[in-house]
Amino acid sequence: MKQFIPVLALSLLTLSTSAQTPNTLTRKEKKAGWKLLFDGTSTNGWHTYLQTTASPAWKVQDGALALDQEAKKNGAPGGDLVTNDEYENYELSIEWKISEGGNSGIIFGVHEDPQLQATYLSGPEMQVLDDAKHPDGKYEKHNSGDLYDLKKSTKYAAKPVGEWNVAKIRKKDGKLTFWLNGVQTIETTMGSEEWNTLMANSKFKTWKAFGKYPKGHIALQDHGDGVWYRSVKIRQL
C-alpha cells in the first residue's frame, strides 16, 4: 500500500530540508561572486579595532561570532571586531541575534587610525537592538534596522529577542540600501542633499571623520551586551 504524506506536512518537510546551512554559500551565490567573511569556526579574517588579532572576548559559539561578556568580566579585553580587509562597493548579508536588553550594531566604512579611537567615529551603523527592553528603543532612529541616529526605518521588521534576523546592506557609489528580514528599511545616498540634512540633524554633525571614507572596514560592535553574528557574506560590486 502506498503511503501519502499530507500536502502541508510535505511542504514543511521540503522547507526544512532546503533551508541553507549557516556559514555556507550555495552554488548560485558562489557563481554570483559571494564570499564568506566568517568561516563558522574561527575569527580568521577579523581583528579587534586598532589591534592585530581578535580579542578573546569574541568567541565562536555554536557556529556564531559571539561577544562573551563573562570573558570580559574575567579580564578579557573587548572592543569592536573589524574585517581585515576594506570594502567600497558591495552587498553584505549577515544574520544577527541579540541578548535580552542588548545593543550592538553593524558599522561600515570604518577608517582604522590611532587618532580615531572607535569605529563609530568614522563609520555609519545599521542598528542591532532589543527594541523592547533597551533604553535606545524609545528613541526615533535608534531601532533595529535604522541607519543609527540618521534615518528611521520605513517599516519595523525585527524579530523577537532570541530569534535570528537577516540584515542586508548594499553600498554602491555612496547609495545605501538596508533590508531587515526581507523588508527594505532604509534608502539614502551619502553626500547627497538628503544626507547632509540627516547629518545636520544628528549627533554626528560635528564629527569630521564620520562617513567620509568611501572605502573602509566592516565592524561588529561591542556595546557591552551579548550578541551573535553568523552567515556573514559579501559580494563586491
Briefly, what is this?
This protein has helices spanning 7-18, 27-32, 69-73, 193-200; strands spanning 35-36, 46-48, 58-61, 64-67, 81-83, 90-98, 103-110, 125-129, 165-172, 175-180, 183-189, 217-220, 227-236. By secondary structure, it is of the alpha+beta class. The longest helix has 12 residues, at 7-18.
Task: Name a few traits of the molecule.
eight-stranded antiparallel beta sheet, alpha+beta, single chain, 31% strand, Jelly Rolls, 237 residues, five-stranded antiparallel beta sheet
How would you characterize the overall build of this protein?
The chain is an alpha+beta fold. The chain has helices at residues 7-18, 27-32, 69-73, 193-200; strands at 35-36, 46-48, 58-61, 64-67, 81-83, 90-98, 103-110, 125-129, 165-172, 175-180, 183-189, 217-220, 227-236. It has a single domain, classed as Exo-inulinase, domain 1 (Jelly Rolls, Sandwich). The protein is globular, with a radius of gyration of 19 Å. The strands form 2 sheets. Strands 1, 3, 4, 6, 9, 10, 11 and 13 form an 8-stranded antiparallel β-sheet that branches. The N and C termini lie far apart (55 Å). It holds the Pfam family 3keto-disac_hyd. It comes from Chitinophaga agri. This is DUF1080 domain-containing protein.
Order of helices and strands: HHEEEEHEEEEEEEHEE
CATH architecture annotation name: Sandwich
The counted number of beta strands is 13
* Mean pLDDT score: 92
At the fourth level of CATH, the homologous superfamily is Exo-inulinase, domain 1
- Characterize the quaternary organization of these chains: single chain
Largest sheet: 8 strands, antiparallel
Task: Examine the coordinates and then state which fold CATH places here, giving the name of the CATH topology.
Answer: Jelly Rolls
Radius of gyration: 19 Å
Structural class by sheet pairing and helices: alpha+beta
Q: What is the terminal separation in angstroms? A: 55 Å
- Unreliable spans are 1-18
Rough shape?
Answer: globular
Strand content: 25-35%
User: So what's the CATH class?
Assistant: Mainly Beta
Instruction: Please bin the fraction of helical residues.
Output: 10-25%
Number of helices: 4
Q: Indicate how many domains the architecture comprises.
A: 1
